[in-house]
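As a warm-up, study this chain.
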Amino acid sequence: MIDVHACLVRGSVFLAGETIECIITFSNKGQSRNETLAWASAQVHCQCSVSDSKVKLPTPKSIQQDATGFPIDSVTSFTPNRGEKGICVVSTTPKILVCDLMLAPGESKTYKYYETIPQDAPPSYKGQSVKYSYKVAIGTQRVSSPTRLLRVPFRVLVLYGLGDTFFMDPDDDYDTDNPFLEGERKPNSLLDQAVQVLTTITSRKSANTYNITNSRGTVARFCIFKSAYKLGEDIIATFDFSNCHVPCIQYSVTLQSEELITEECRRRPNQGVCISSYSKHQEFSIHVSKSHMILPIPLHIAPSFITDIVCLKWRLRFEFVTSKEPLPEQVIPADQSESATWQGPQNIGVETMVWNLPIKIMPTNPLHATSVSLLRAVTTMSV
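Now compare it with the structure written out below.
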């Protein structure tokens, strides 16, 4: 019996364009005889599965084949996505880890597997109609036995335009008096570049103010401090109800995603957008002049992205419950030592007003996302 142990060194979340490092250990747990493994290979792939009632997948250009020209559906061939639903949209070149590996009783051997995630790969995503999932597949086979697969799932975040940027590390030591030495400075790692890009895009620049009105006048003035946020950030904004003509009794703000299937992949021509709600903030605002909201962005959701099949956008959905008639004023005693009780009306004629504000949600540092990831970076099987 040979145990195969695979571990992603840095965790289970990566940026597209980064290099994955996976440590794979083969151990002979037996105590009496040598064990032999014919071969072991590793490959990264992304599987796309859809809801058949909403999405029709594009016809693949060709059937994936092995070196002999036959479709690779045999149990003795290395097929990383064997048994999975959907189509494989990303598949790296398989790499051979070992051939004819013989292990003595109690012996173990460790190998390192490196693979770069393509820059144009889709992000990991699980929506109502479409799902993209990534795995490191490790195939092994013993002589005269079927192939066994060990899959290690991981998450991919995509930051568009990252490959077009070029940053230098300001902490690097170099001779500023010699201009010919500047070219020898090494660029930052992809992760460092991503952090700098995200910090620049999501930094607070200038506040945006919106006058929210209906047919009877102004309901509120809404101020939001930026329009682009990273995963895990809080959306902070303020409401100003002073000097407004329409009394606002209650308001709520919900973070929602819009999942839009491309026209060529829709099952029905009039197919609408799939809406999913996440965090929500709700408050009563009667007789309140100013209020604020703090809306957390979950770390596990997918940032905004677009592929050939689906487009994901984000928005804030506002619901204002307003009174159709002016409310009785609250009488404040002249003497501050006295107290007063305001009795609200038993019945209020209200109406609900809805407003949607688009926002951008960007990826975050993969190291932060790893801390809350439910994906196991360590997997084991026996062959």
